[in-house]
Design a protein that fits this description.
Layout: H1 7-11, E1 33-35, H2 37-42, E2 48-53, H3 63-76, E3 81-85, H4 89-101, E4 104-110, H5 116-124, E5 128-132, H6 136-149, E6 153-154, H7 160-166, H8 168-177, E7 183-187, H9 192-208, E8 214-220, H10 225-228, H11 250-259, E9 263-267, H12 269-280, H13 292-302, E10 312-317, H14 326-329, H15 342-350
Parallel strand pairs: 2-10, 3-4, 3-6, 4-5, 7-8, 7-10, 8-9
Antiparallel strand pairs: 1-2
Helix pairs in contact: 3-4, 3-7, 4-5, 7-9, 8-9, 9-11, 12-13
The chain binds ligand F0G.
Length: 351
C-alpha cells in the first residue's frame, strides 16, 4: 500500500521551498479530476471536459495547497503568529494549518461579506477573526502593513511559498491526463491561483516537455478589474470569494493570459449561478465563484469565440458548495411539510 502524505511530500523536489521548511500537512491535494461528458455535450461540442474539484481539500477549498507550504515554511523558522486578509477561504485554511502547527492565526475579513461556511470554519479552527469596515482590498493593505511592522508572517498569496504549494494542482492535472489540457478555465480574484497554475504548467513544460494550456480566467462582472484594465473601487458580486477590486497579482495574471494565448473575461452573476446549478445537476456542488471558470467557457462557446471540438478542457472548481449554503437556502422553495403518516406521503408522491 502506498500512503499519501500531502503535496509537499509528493512534489518536494519540484517546489522552491527553503531547507528550514518543516512540513505541516492535513494531506491536502490529490483531488479528483471528474469527467463531465453530459455537461460537455450540453455545452455544444464533442470535447473532453473535466472538473478539478478543489473543494475536496481538507478545509473545502484550493487554498490548502498554498497554505501547507506557507505554514510549513513559517513553522521552520519558529513563527508564532500568522495573518491574512480574506474573502473567507484563505481565512479558514490559514486557521486550520495554524492550528495544526500550534500557531496563532489572525484573519481579517470584509464585514458582512463572507459566506457562512467560511466564517464558521475560521471560528472552528480557533482563529482571531477581525471584520474590517471595508473591502478585501482594504483588509489586504492592512495586513501587508502590519506584517512589515510586527513579527507576524503574512500568508496571503503575496507570500511566494503559497504559490509554490498552489502550483501542484497543475502537476496533478498533467500527471492524471498524461499531458497538460488544451484549455484551463478558472475563476480569478486576487490572482494568486492563475499565477500559480501558469508557474506549474511552465515547469512541467520545461521538465517533461508537456504542452502548455491556454488559460481562460473569469472574473465576476461586478468585480472585473483585469478585464476593465483598472481597479474597481466598490466590487460587488454574489460570488463573494472573488469580490476583489485590486488583485495583488493582477500583472502576473495578465502575463499568464498573454503568454498562454488565453483570455480573461467577465461573467454575470446570473451566468455564475446558472452554472452552479448545472454542476450540482452533475452531482458536483461548488460555491458560486467556483462556477465562474466554466460559466466563462460556456459564454465563449455560445458566442462562437471558442470552438472546443476535439479539445481537452479542464475547469478548476475552487471551493465546495458547503462553504456558502445560504446562496441555496435563501433562494430555494421551503421543503414540503407532511404529517408523519404514510398515506400523506403516498398522496404527496402522486402529485
Ligand atoms: N475561488 C474561490 C472559492 C476563492 O476563495 C478564491 C479566492 C478564488 C476562486 C480566486 O483565487 O484569489 O487566487 O485569484 N479567495 C481568496 C480568499 C481571495 O481570501 O479566500 P485567487
Amino acid at each position: 500500500m502506498t500512503t499519501y502524505h500531502g503535496i509537499l511530500h509528493r512534489y518536494r523536489g519540484l517546489l522552491d521551498l527553503p531547507d528550514h521548511t518543516q512540513t505541516v500537512s492535513l494531506l491536502e491535494g490529490n483531488t479528483p479530476l471528474i469527467p463531465v461528458p453530459r455537461l460537455a455535450q450540453e455545452m455544444g461540442g464533442r470535447f473532453e471536459l473535466y472538473v478539478k474539484f478543489e473543494g475536496l481539500n481538507p478545509t473545502g477549498s484550493f487554498k490548502d495547497r498554498g497554505m501547507t507550504a506557507a505554514i510549513s515554511e513559517a513553522a521552520g523558522r519558529g513563527v508564532h503568529t500568522v495573518i491574512c486578509a480574506s474573502t473567507g477561504n484563505t481565512a479558514a485554511s490559514a486557521a486550520a494549518y495554524a492550528a495544526r502547527a500550534g500557531m496563532r492565526a489572525v484573519v481579517l475579513i470584509p464585514q458582512g461579506k463572507v459566506a457562512a461556511g467560511k466564517l464558521a470554519g475560521a471560528a472552528a479552527y480557533g482563529a482571531q477573526i477581525i471584520q474590517v469596515q471595508g473591502s478585501f482590498d482594504d483588509a489586504l493593505s492592512m495586513v501587508v502593513a502590519i506584517s512589515q511592522k510586527l513579527p507576524i508572517a503574512l500568508v496571503n498569496s503575496l507570500n511566494p511559498f503559497r504559490l509554490e504549494g498552489q502550483k501542484t494542482a497543475a502537476f496533478e492535472i498533467s500527471d492524471t491526463l498524461g499531458n497538460s489540457p488544451d484549455w484551463l478555465c478558472l475563476p480569478v480574484g486576487n490572482a494568486g491561483n492563475i499565477t500559480a497554475y501558469w508557474m506549474g504548467f511552465r515547469q512541467y513544460h520545461h521538465l517533461k516537455s508537456a504542452g502548455l494550456p491556454r488559460i481562460l480566467g473569469a472574473q465576476a462582472a461586478g468585480a472585473a478589474p483585469l478585464v476593465l484594465g483598472h481597479p474597481v473601487e466598490h466590487p460587488e458580486t454574489v460570488a463573494t470569494a472573488i469580490r476583489i477590486g485590486r488583485p495583488a497579482r493582477g500583472e502576473q495574471a495578465l502575463e499568464a493570459i498573454e503568454q498562454s494565448q488565453g483570455r480573461i473575461l467577465a461573467v454575470s452573476d446570473e451566468d455564475i449561478l446558472a452554472m452552479q446549478r448545472r454542476l450540482a445537476g452533475e452531482g458536483i456542488w461548488v460555491e458560486p465563484a467556483s462556477a465562474a471558470g466554466l460559466a466563462g467557457l460556456e459564454v465563449e462557446i455560445r458566442a462562437g469565440r471558442l470552438d472546443p471540438s476535439g479539445l481537452r478542457i479542464v475547469a478548476v472548481c475552487t471551493g465546495h458548495g458547503l462553504k456558502d449554503p445560504e446562496i441555496i437556502t435563501q433562494r430555494m422553495r421551503a421543503p414540503q411539510v407532511l404529517p408523519s403518516d404514510v398515506k400523506a406521503l403516498e398522496a404527496a408522491l402522486a402529485q
